[in-house]
Amino acid sequence: MNGPNEKIIAITGASSGIGAATARELAARGATVLLGARRTDRLDELVAGIRADGGRAEALAVDVTRRADLQRLVDRAVEGHGRLDVLVSNAGIARVAPMTDLDVDDWEAMIDVNLRGVLHGISAALPLFRRQGRGHFVTTASTSGLKIVPTQAVYAGVKNAVRTTMEALRQESTDGSVRTTTISPGYVRTELVDHVEDPVRRAQYRQNMAELGIGPDAVARAIAFAVEQPDDVEIGDIVLRPTRQD
Length: 246
Ligand code: NDP
Prior knowledge:
Layout: E1 8-12, H1 17-28, E2 32-37, H2 40-52, E3 56-61, H3 67-81, E4 86-89, H4 104-132, E5 136-140, H5 153-171, E6 179-185, H6 199-212, H7 216-227, E7 237-240
Parallel strand pairs: 1-2, 1-4, 2-3, 4-5, 5-6, 6-7
Helix pairs in contact: 1-7, 3-4, 4-5
The structure holds NADPH dihydro-nicotinamide-adenine-dinucleotide phosphate.
């Protein structure tokens, strides 16, 4: 059986932030990483950097709102490496705003990327994991789902939907074939809030990130910890915040 550091690991949302840091961390520990996102130029740069450091990485254009893209990512792992050990469903967007703004398109986009994207990953990899008799879903939720604050209603709701989905999948997988891990980070310094439309709110979030945020490498190390456990040990939930976050 392949050792903890020789796993074949697919990561969505790998073109920046937590996903990119996780790719670097896992590759440095000996995993082969298959990286998916829409910005393939960023993925290509990341792959080149990992390879220059002696690691193994490949890039694939993946839009997680498209079910077929997740299937291609999983199929690529099997075609190239004979198996997939871990799927890190990390792609996400945060379009934070009060409900009264009625940004319905943004609500739907968060459901499409943050929830449907995760479900697409499960539907693509679960049959394979069952066939293999082993496999590991790692999914990025958020502390937003644990401490509810104004402007994050849909984002937090969707992240909690992901958490409960993973818990149900865990309970359905006690035959030992599938492990699930939900990572819930607090403020992490990434590009996540750069996409918030309202400039005042964007500036506020950026300030929070700059003042409080931890580096994405901290989340990457937590993911590596979960991934490197032996098959009979499942790290179900990891919550990590900046120490000063309330
Ligand atoms: P970034 O904005 O840096 O990264 C988001 C990633 O998601 C990018 O690689 C982006 O790639 C990808 N992505 C977005 N939409 C899609 C899509 N439709 N298909 C495929 N990939 C997509 O932010 P983070 O690193 O912070 O975010 C990673 C995860 O962490 C998210 O799920 C986020 O909700 C979660 N999180 C972040 C926190 C933080 O404080 N930063 C706190 C808690 C949770 P591309 O645009 O190239 O497709």
